[in-house]
Amino acid sequence: MHRRNKWLDSLIMLVLIVAACAMLLPYGWMVLSSLKSNMEIVSGSHSLLPQRASLEGYRTVLLDAPFGRWLLNSAVTSIVITAATLFTSALAGYIFAKHEFKGQKLLFVLILATMMIPFQVIMIPTYLITAKLGLVNQLMAIVLPNLVSSYGVFLAKQFIEDIPQDLLDAARMDGAGELRLMVRIIAPLILPMLSALGIFTFMNSWNNYLWPLIILNDESKMTVPLALVYFNGTHMVNYNVVMSAAVLITLPVIAVFLIFQKQFIKGLTMTGMK
């Protein structure tokens, strides 16, 4: 039986290694392609490794375009959206979980219903509203539609419902107000959930391509996903430059995940099975 379990464990480990390699292959190909010349890529070479490694693609991205400005735009919008989402999700989740008011269930159902609507359906109305507000070609146009997340509200509500009501009542008896309850008691208890939600929100905001493509046309206001379009030539695509830009765009997301890896995994294990 022990030998049988050992073989089973080895088989599972082999399957996981193969699956991991399959998932990492596109990223490895992207990095290696960024080190090739455009001629080598266009020639259809089947070699995974570059014949002669070159940083020409990275030089073009960093020196021939305002890539630093685009990084700053993406960082500012992603951080603001993430902070706003965490705040609104925690606050709304607390209200729905621990307070009762007229129309509460109907309002929560309506919020959940918005999760079922693809962004493409509301894209034109959102653009028209943004244009009426005079925010076209402004970074605020990226931030404003993403200040509240229906999924974040749902996740926070489900998590806060598990906090014992007696704990909150005891804090109120000691003179704690609602703001102090949120800051001193609820926020620390839901920190794993907020960490996981924050990383998901940051990644989605950083990688958002469709809405910035529609609402922004000023080169100085572009975000990094739009750089992939910027480096496409009219008659030919500079694949090594595009791959270099893709690598640089991916690095901040990887860094954020590595920094908050423990909190992210803890948040998933505590909230993913609810």
TrEMBL record:
Entry similarity comment: Belongs to the binding-protein-dependent transport system permease family.
Entry annotated with the keyword Transmembrane: yes
Membrane topology: Multi-pass membrane protein
Alphabetic keyword roster: Cell membrane, Membrane, Transmembrane, Transmembrane helix, Transport
One biological process term in Gene Ontology: transmembrane transport
A Pfam family annotated for this UniProt entry: BPD_transp_1
Location, primary (coarse class): membrane
Protein name: ABC transporter permease subunit
CDD domains to which the protein is assigned, alphabetical: TM_PBP2
Matches recorded under Gene3D superfamilies: MetI-like
GO cellular component, one term: plasma membrane
Subcellular location: Cell membrane
Transmembrane region(s): 7-29, 70-94, 106-129, 135-160, 181-203, 241-260
InterPro entries: MetI-like (IPR000515), MetI-like_sf (IPR035906)
PANTHER family xref list: ABC TRANSPORTER PERMEASE PROTEIN MG189-RELATED-RELATED, SN-GLYCEROL-3-PHOSPHATE TRANSPORT SYSTEM PERMEASE PROTEIN UGPE
Organism this protein belongs to: Paenibacillus dendrobii
Every ABC transmembrane type-1 domain range: 71-260
